[in-house]
C-alpha cells in the first residue's frame, strides 16, 4: 500500500470542518488521524462526521499534537491562535498548513516566519486559496509566457454578498479590517503576477460604511478602495466590499503592455441561463466556498504531495507576510487619510519619493 | 469505521480507467477492490496505478466476479460486452453500473432490462452522465418548479471536437452511429424534461459526412440533425457533430410556454478571458471529460449511496432502453431518408398519424 | 445641390410609417415626396408627421403613382397588395422596394419576377432586412473569406416575443403561416450562406400550438421546427416561435468544416448589466424593430444609392421567390405530416432520392 | 414646411467633420448652412463633401459667424480655440455646442461659463457624449428609480486602443494629460450618478508610462489610476489607459447599497461570435466612434430640439467645469505624488479632513 500522510486538523469552525472533510475524503494520499477544537458543538459534529471514519477527537491542541504519528497539522482555528499553534507544531517537527492570516499583527506573523526558517526541512504554508484556483493558474501561465507583454496595471476585488445580520461586524473585531482580511488575497495575487520582490512606492486608500455602521467602531469599512504603487512602473488597485447584492464576486484583471487577462469578470455558478420576461438571467455563487471549493481541495492535495514527495510548495511563506504588510499599509492609509510613501528599498519616507 | 461498498471495475479503457480512479480516490464511501481487463497494456497501467492501493487485478471478468466480497460491478469495457457482463453480474447478485449503451442492439438492451427486473433488490443503472451534471439538475429543478411553464420545444446537441485522425471512423464501427452513440444523451435529457412516458409521434433525420468520408461505410455521418415529435405537442430536435473546431460543445435549451432555460449555451472552461488584438477570447473544454468530470464523480458517489442506503437511483433502466430506441429510430430515418410515424400508443404506422 | 431620389411610400401601417420616416429623415440622398394609404387613421398620422415636411398624401395608390417626378416606390401595405402594386409601379417605370413577402402565393410572386425581368433597368427588391444587418454581413464576410471552411450546417431561428392578445392569430390569416412569414428570413439567410443555387433535397417539419390555439384554424402553429436538406451535403434547420418570454430572439449559427459563426446567440439590447439579488440580468430587445432598425435604415440608403448610382442591388429578386418556395414546402410538410423529397434538379419525387 | 435650425460648424478635423455630416444628414430638424476651418485640406474635404449640399465654406471663424441666419454654432476646432470661439459665438447671440474641454485651463473654462450666464436665453453645452449614450441613460434611469439603492462606489475607465505611432504623444501636448482629457468623461459620469452637487473630499492618483515614454515630457502617462472621494460616503475610482490591445474599452460600474449596474463590462461590436480552434472570440470596437457614434447623433438631435423648442439641455455647463476641475486635481495628484484634501465646502486643506 502506498503510504499516506498522517494529518491533524486544529479548529473545526466553518473552514476547519471543511479542511477536515477534504483531508478525510478528497485527499487520497492523506489520512486524517486527529482533530481538535475546544468547542463542544464542534466536538459533537466531529463525533458524528469524523469519528466513524476512525478520526481521533481532542479538545486540546497540544494533546492532539502529541497524537502518535502525526506528520502535518492544519491550523484553522481562531486567528489569534494561528501563530502560536503554527509555531508549536513546527517546533514539534510537523509540517504546517496555516489558514490565513498568520496573524493580523505583522510582528507576530514575522515570528512564525522566523521559526519556520529554523526548520527548513518542514513545509510551512499559509492558505492563499486563490493560488490553487485553476483559472488564476491558467491566467498566470499565460502572463508568464508573455501573452500580455509586461504586466503594468493590476486590478482585483474581493466582494462578499451582503448578509442581513451582524456577522461582518463581529468578524471585523478579530479579522483586522477589510484590507487585511479581504484584500490580502488580491494583494497576494498582485505580488504573484508582478513578482514577489516588487517594492511598494506609495499606498493610498479610502472607504465608507454604507450598510454596516457598526464597523466604524473597529476602524473598518464595508467598501474600501486602495491603490498600491510599486517601484518600476507597476500599479495595483483594489476594491473590497461586504454588501454585494448578487453574490460573491471576486475578480481580477491584469493589464499588460500587449494584452489583458481577466479572471471571473463574468462569474459563473453553473451553466444555466434563464430567459424570462425581465431578461436573461444567470445566477452566481453566493459564497467564497461556491467560488473556491475546488481550489481548497487542490490545496489539500498539493500540500500533501509536497510533503510526501519533498517537492517545493507553490509559494513561499515570506510572501504571506509581505501581503499582510501591504494590507496593513492600506489599513493605515484608510484610517489616517494620508498617502504613504516609500523609497526604493521599501523604507517609509515622509514625502513622495519622486515627482513626474 | 463506516462500512464501504466493495466495488469492481470491468474494462480499463479510457472511461474504465477513470471509473477505477474515481472509485479509488473520489468516492469516500466506496472501496475499489478489483478490476479486470484482458489487455496487457491496461493491466500494466493497473499494476502501477491501482495495485499499490491494494486493488486486485484480473484479466478475466468471471474470475474477478468471483473475487470475495464484491458487491457492485462497474461495466465499462467494449460495448459488445456491456450486456453479457451486466447480466452475469446481476445474476451473481451484484449491483451494476453499466456504461452506456447497454447495447447498440435494442433487443439485447431489453434483455438486460428483463434480467434486472428479476432482481428488484439490486441497483442496476446505465451511465447517463448528464443526469448527474449540476447544471442540468439545476435547470431541471427550475423547469420542474414551473419556472418556464410547460416545456414545449427541446433542442439539444452533442458536438465533439474534430480530431485529426481516424478515431471517429473506427469508433463508428462499434458505437452504432452518431444518433445512437452521441444523441442518445440528448434524447435521454428530452425524456427527462418532457417526462419518461412521452410517446413518439414522428421521427425524421438527415445527415452528411463533411470531414470523415470513412463513416459512410458504416452508414454513419459526422453531422446529423433530427426531429423527434412526441404526442401531446412536444417537439425535440437534435444536432450531433464530430467536427467542432473549438472543442466539445454539448448544449441544451428547453423552451416552455412561459420561459426558456439553456444549459451550456455559453461554454465555460475556466474563468479566464483573454483580451488581445484580435478580440476577446475564451477557451472552452476540449473533451466530454473536461465538461462532465464532476458529473462522473457525482455518479460514482450517488450510485454508491443508493446501494449502501438502499435509496432509489435517480433514473430508471427502462429510460435508457427507451432513449436507445429513439436513437435507433433516428438512425433508421437517416439511413432510409424516410420519416417514421407512430400512433398514440407508440406503435409504428405507415402514414402521418394526424394532419393539421 | 446633389440630386435626391424622389420616393413614394405606399401603405402607412407599422412598417410603412417607419419606411416613410426613414426616407424622410434618415436617407440623405432620398426625398420623400408622396405617400398613400386608404385608412383615415394612417392619413391623419401622415398629416401631422409628414405633410409639414412637404410630403403629399394620397388615399389611392394609382393617384400617388401619377404624382409627378416619382422615381421609386416603397410597397409596404397589406400583403395581398404587394404584388399588384409592385407590378403597376414597375410598369409605370418606377424602381420598387417591396416589403416581404411579394405574396404568400408562389405563382403570384413569380408573376412579379416575370414582370420585373421585362424592365431590367429598374431596381426591384424585396425587403429581406437581415441582408442589411451589419452582424450578418460581418459573419458572411468571414464565411466568404474561408474562416470556417465550407459551410455544412445552418441553424437559424426567428422567435417573437409572446403577446397577450390575439395579434398573431389575426396576422396568421393573411401572413401565410409561421414558416412562410417568419422562417422565410432564415431560409433566405441559408441561401445566402450556402449559395443561391442550392437545390433542395428534402424537407420535413413539425409544429404545435402551445399558447395560441386559434392558429389551428389557419393550419398554423406557434412553434415550428423544420429541416431543409440541400443536395451537396448541406443541411439547414429552422425554429420559429411566437411565444418567447424574454423578447425577440432571432439567431443564426453557421457550422463549417473548420469553424462556426454565430449571429445573436447572446442578444444585446444595450450595454447595461444588472447585478441584483437573483443574479446578473440583461434585458434584450422586445421586437424585430429593436433588433433590426439600423438594418432598415441601411436598406433605405442602399436601395437609394443603387438607383441613383445604378449599382447592383445586394441580392436578387429570384432569391426571394426561392425562399418563399422553400417556406411553402415547410408549410406543406407541416400540414401533411409528410417528408418531401426532390431530385438533383429540384423536381419533386415521391421517394427519398438516395439512401445511405 | 417645419422650420429647421440653421447650424454652423467651426473646425473640420476628425470630430468636426463628423459633426458637420451629422448636422447635414442625420439631424432632420437642423440645416447645416456654413462651416469654417483655416486648414486647406479641411476646406478641400468640405468642398467635395458639403458644398454640393449647399453648405457655405469659410476659412475664418468670424466671417462664418457673420453668415446670415446662423442660429447655432458647433465649436469643434483645436482646444485652444474652444473658449474664445464659444465666447464670440455667444456674444453674437448664437446657441453653442462646444466640444469638450472648454479649455484645459480652469479659469478660461470658467470664463465661458461667466459669459454664458449673461445670455440665459441661449443654449450653451459641452459635448459630453456619454450623456447621450442609450446604455448610460438606461443605467441612470434604473439607478434613479432606486433599483440599486443609494450609489456608493463608482468605477469607470476610459481605455483607448494602442496605436503604433506617436499620436498620443503629440496629442498630450495640447489635451492636458490623461485625467483631463480621458477621465474627464468618467468624472462627469460620476457627478451624474452621484449628483452634480457632490463635494470632493480627497483626491489621489498614480500613473506610469508603459509604452509611450514620450509622454513624460508633458507630465503625462499612458496608464493612470485615481481615486476621488466625495463627502457623504461616496467613492469614485478611475482608470485611464492608452495601450489597450483589444480596442476601445470604456466601461463603468455603479455599486449601490442594494445592487450594481455595469455599462459595457462586456463590450459589443457586433453580434457575431467566432468559434475557432483557439476558442470563442468576439471582436470589439476599435475607437470611441465605434462605441459612441449613435450618442453623437443623439447629441446633435437633442441640442437642435432644445434650441427649437426651448427645452432644457440634458445637463448644465457648470458640470463640465466641475468635471474639469476634478480632472485637474487628479493631474496635480499624479504630478506631485501628493494626496489632496478638501473640507466640506470643497476648499483645499492641507491635512485629511477626517480620520476614521
Automatic annotation (TrEMBL), chains A, B, C, D:
Protein's UniProt keywords contain Zinc: no
GO biological process: NADPH regeneration
One Gene Ontology term, aspect cellular component: cytoplasm
Domain GFO/IDH/MocA-like oxidoreductase residue range list: 137-261
Top-level lineage group: Eukaryota
Chloroplast is among the record's keywords: no
GO molecular function, one term: oxidoreductase activity
Protein keywords: Oxidoreductase
Pfam family, one: GFO_IDH_MocA
Residue ranges occupied by any Gfo/Idh/MocA-like oxidoreductase N-terminal domain in the UniProt entry: 5-122
Family: Belongs to the Gfo/Idh/MocA family.
Name of the featured protein: Scyllo-inositol 2-dehydrogenase (NAD(+))
Taxonomic source organism: Cercospora beticola
Source species taxonomy: Eukaryota, Fungi, Dikarya, Ascomycota, Pezizomycotina
